[in-house]
Amino acid sequence: MKYTEVYAVVRRIPRGRVATYGQVADLAGLGRGARQVGYALAGLSEEQSEQVPWHRVLNAQGRVSPRAEPVTEDTQRGLLESEGVQFDDAGRASLERFGWRPRAARRQ
DNA sequence: CCGGTGACGCGCG
DNA sequence: GCGCGCGCCACCG
């Protein structure tokens, strides 16, 4: 696969926490390649999905990013809620409360 | 090569 | 706090 680094970063996101596309891009060394992160996750096969917690990645506003197929958005939100992440009336999760804050020094 | 297209982000008003 | 416009960047026809 092509985006190994991206998947490696996403695998580090703990259950019940979320990261943003920009954050993942940065940690994966893609700089301002936030869009590439979305592209990488969109290309995950079903098998890979079981090993990469793609649902823990939200946009900078703490919202599930809109897709071509809206049903997958519900799936993502459902998975997050099942692990404790809460969404407000506007469909936003507080990055303040649920955002993943890895420590650079200890790499997590 | 060129232009269109995203699971994006940020600065402005 | 919100929408909008624009910048970004890999992909694809």
Helix-strand layout with pairing:
Elements lengths: L3 H8 L7 E2 H7 L6 H9 L3 H4 L7 E2 L12 H12 L12 H4 L10
Parallel strand pairs: 1-2
Helix pairs in contact: 2-3
This protein binds a DNA duplex (13 and 13 nucleotides) through helix 2, helix 3, strand 2 and helix 5.
Short description:
The chain is mainly alpha-helical and 108 residues long. It contains six helices and two strands; from the N terminus they run αβαααβαα.
Explained architecture:
The protein is mainly alpha-helical and 108 residues long. Helices cover 41% and strands 4% of the residues. It has six helices and two strands, in the order αβαααβαα. It has a two-stranded parallel sheet with strand order 1-2. Helix 2 packs across helix 3. It is globular and about 35 Å long. The chain binds a DNA duplex (13 and 13 nucleotides) through helix 2, helix 3, strand 2 and helix 5.
Form type: globular
Uncertain spans, ≥5 residues at pLDDT below 50? Answer: none
Radius of gyration: 13 Å
- Please give the alpha-carbon distance between the first and last residues: 24 Å
The largest pleated sheet is described as: 2 strands, parallel
Order of helices and strands: HEHHHEHH
Instruction: Report the average pLDDT across residues.
Output: 94
Q: Give the structural class.
A: mainly alpha
Strand content: under 5%
Going across the major beta sheet, what is the strand order?
Answer: 1-2
User: Helical proportion?
Assistant: 40-55%
DSSP summary, beta strand count: 2
Count of individual helical segments: 6
